[in-house]
Write a structure and sequence with these properties.
It is a single chain. It is built from 2 helices and 9 strands, in the order H-H-E-E-E-E-E-E-E-E-E. By secondary structure, the chain is mostly beta strands. It has one domain: Porin, CATH 2.40.160. The protein has an 8-stranded antiparallel beta barrel with strand order 1-2-3-5-6-7-8-9. The longest helix has 18 residues.
């Protein structure tokens, strides 16, 4: 009986020692979709590149066409408010008969505020607003509000908008003149 009991103890010890060196298979990580943190999507840095073309809309004066390319960047507080600053390049097509300069180029430097009019969480496109206030070299101050439509969702959107710009400059009669422009903007926002 002693031999049987001793054999069982030795056999039990051998099994417990061999269990320590076994490869144990752990359960796999569960498959699930990635979590989207919408709060992080709302805030942070943003920037946009916009191309614009348009014409002045003066009834009693010679009208002047322009093209503009601008870069805007800033901070996104929410999908309804983004603040930033921008710089660009502007070229006037029919410059000589309107402005008091042969230089047909200008550099707009401006502050920008923009935001969505409705939430973009459940939509692929939403209307938005934008306001540029600043100055153009060789001219003066300008104000340019615009309304448009943003295609794409919360971030990385194609933009199309209609803008109205009022600016002041010295015309060919050496008079400080306010000019109004209507333009079409195409852009991409990151």
């Amino acid at each position: 009986m002693k031999k049987l009991l001793l054999s069982l103890i030795v056999f039990g010890a051998a099994i417990s020692v061999s269990a320590q060196y076994r490869n144990v298979k752990l359960p796999d990580k569960p498959e699930q979709t990635d979590y989207i943190n919408y709060e992080r999507e709302n805030a942070g840095f943003w920037y946009a590149i916009e191309a614009e073309g348009g014409s002045s809309i003066m009834a009693q004066h010679t009208n002047m066409q322009y093209v503009n390319l601008s870069f805007v960047g800033g901070y996104r507080f929410s999908e309804y408010l983004r603040l930033g600053a921008g710089v660009g390049g502007r070229m006037y097509v029919t410059n000589a008969s309107v402005r008091d300069t042969d230089n047909k180029y200008g550099v707009p430097i401006f502050a920008n505020a923009r935001g969505n009019l409705i939430s973009a969480y459940d939509r692929d496109g939403v209307p938005f607003w934008s306001l540029n206030i600043g100055g153009i070299t060789n001219e003066g101050v300008f104000v340019s509000p615009s309304v448009g439509y943003s295609f794409g969702g919360l971030r990385n959107n194609f933009l199309i908008s209609l803008s109205y710009t009022i600016t002041s400059f010295t015309d060919y009669t050496k008079t400080k003149q306010a000019y109004s422009y209507v333009g079409l903007k195409l852009g991409y926002e990151f």
